[in-house]
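Before the break, one more example. Copy the sequence into your notebook; we will annotate it together after we see the structure.
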Amino acid sequence: MCPDCEDFARTVLPLGQLALYADMAGADIDFVDVVSPSLALSLPEPPSDTFPDDSDPAEDS
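Here is what the structure looks like once it is written out:
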């Protein structure tokens, strides 16, 4: 796995786990609200082959 891919995957995994935790009964939503943005901001640029070349994330679908 390329270094960028590994960093990206290492950050996306806890974001996914946090999303699952947030849906659990009794989850500490204040914790989720504090940690989620920090994890999201720490995401590196996605690996170059993650999205098709003609995709534009800013474009509305």
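The two ends are 31 Å apart (CA to CA). Residues 3-22 form the longest helix (20 residues). Try to locate both features in your own notes.
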